[in-house]
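Entry 12.
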Amino acid sequence: MLVVCSPGSPGTTAEAQPTMDSFAQAAGRAAGWPAGNLGAIYFESLEEGLPRLSQPDAALAMVPLPFLMRYGQELGLKPRLETVPESGAREVWSLVAKKGRVPSPAALDGWEVTGAPGYAEDFVRNILLGDSGGLPSDTKITFTARVLTVLRRAASGEKVAVLLDRTQTASLSSLPFAADLQVVYRSRPFPSGFLCVVRDRLPAADAKSLLQALLRLHENAAGREVLKSLRMVRFARVDEAELDKIRRPLPSVEGSAK
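Predicted 3D structure (tokens):
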């Protein structure tokens, strides 16, 4: 089973299942696996995704970078491919707050920083905003999937700053209260997400055939159509040196999977 877990992303498990089934069929067929040998399921929440990844048939995972940084070591996630979304090969995060309230993240004493990556506090603090001069120790980092709600709070003057991905940032100007907001900081570009093997649950020969097939999936029309349904353009090889550099500022273990 391939478990896709992307906290804060739109859609439910039930809504995504037809897309997951199509992807699993296409990937398994491309790898030369017998029909039905690969399944896939999507979760938009940690509460459902984490327990599913702990089950013994969860042999593969597709997760965003914050998830990998927060839970990768505990769950035995070994990144093998990068996911390349339609929005671009690299993700840039923007920190948005009330216009004129703060000059930089370092000035967010007593503030809340919230957004989809907020479940990975050490990642947000040490990596995503690590090049900004650092957050004050009393800055509260939280997770939310309801970005529009917190953007309204920010625009009204509450002490909250919001982390937006590239797509969300591009839509910022369309909001009726956009003039009351400003981008305080933009992160450096990061990989968007990863396809990982989970512990040693997938035999090496099967992993090799599947990963090679996924790297070629975009080379034919049917494969491109399946990837498009996932809002992706292709899979790419992992840049291990880059990933090691990203991990370096993190504590050795970022907490326990709860």
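Annotation: DSSP finds nine helices and 13 strands in the chain. The longest strand covers residues 77-85.
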